[in-house]
Specification:
The chain has helices at about 15-35, 40-75, 80-125, 135-150, 165-170, 170-180. By secondary structure, the protein is mainly α. It folds into 2 domains: about 35-125, no CATH class; about 135-180, no CATH class. Helix 2 (about 40-75) crosses helix 3 (about 80-125). The longest helix has about 45 residues, at about 80-125. It is flat and about 95 Å long. The relative contact order is 0.03.
């Protein structure tokens, strides 16, 4: 039997399952460390991402355009002329695609901009649970009346606007004071 420096004749350090387990443990530790200090690597990832995309596009264009270049050179074009012809062809294709697609995209964006106020009004009052138009005011008024009848101290205020952030934003200070109190004047909830 063979003797190892560490352990006996068949050490667990030589087993495939052990080495695989150690590999995965080290991999998970490295992933955890990377997630902990990702701010350090963020600029590096940004630089690599900025450089990688142009290389990817250029590699794709190279493999797409190489057969055309070979055909043009077989027809007697010099290399500079075949490359220039391919560039002109690519620019023409991009211009044609943009000329057909750009008006469609622009009209869709303009329609979305025109419909945004009506979409916002609809979205403000549609309940996600049943898809019906919501009525927040009437139930809150009824609850207000019930609480008043029981002489419970609370705060109730109605404001103009819908059930959305745009209406609540101006009242945020008052809402926070109501919930958290006013430490400047010594009033706490």
């Amino acid at each position: 039997m063979k003797k190892n420096k560490i352990g006996g004749s068949q050490s667990m350090f030589n087993k495939v399952w052990f080495r695989t387990g150690i590999f995965f443990i080290m991999l998970f530790i490295l992933i955890k460390l990377f997630m902990e200090v990702h701010e350090v690597f963020a600029p590096i990832a940004t630089i690599i991402g900025s450089v990688f995309l142009p290389f990817l596009i250029s590699g794709f264009l190279f493999y797409i355009c190489l057969p055309f270049q070979n055909i043009l050179e077989k027809w007697g074009f010099p290399r500079w002329a075949s490359i220039t012809t391919i560039f002109i062809g690519l620019i023409a294709i991009i211009a044609i695609v943009v000329s057909f697609i750009a008006p469609i995209i622009i009209s869709n964006i303009n329609n979305l901009i025109k419909q945004t106020p009506s979409l916002q009004k609809e979205a403000d009052f549609i309940l996600p649970t049943n898809g019906k138009r919501a009525n927040f005011l009437t139930p809150n008024r009824e609850l207000n009346q019930l609480i008043k009848e029981d002489n419970i101290e609370y705060f109730y205020k109605e404001f103009n606007g819908g059930h959305h952030w745009k209406s609540w934003k101006p009242l945020l200070g008052d809402i926070l004071l109501q919930f958290l109190g006013d430490p400047i004047n010594g009033k706490y909830v």
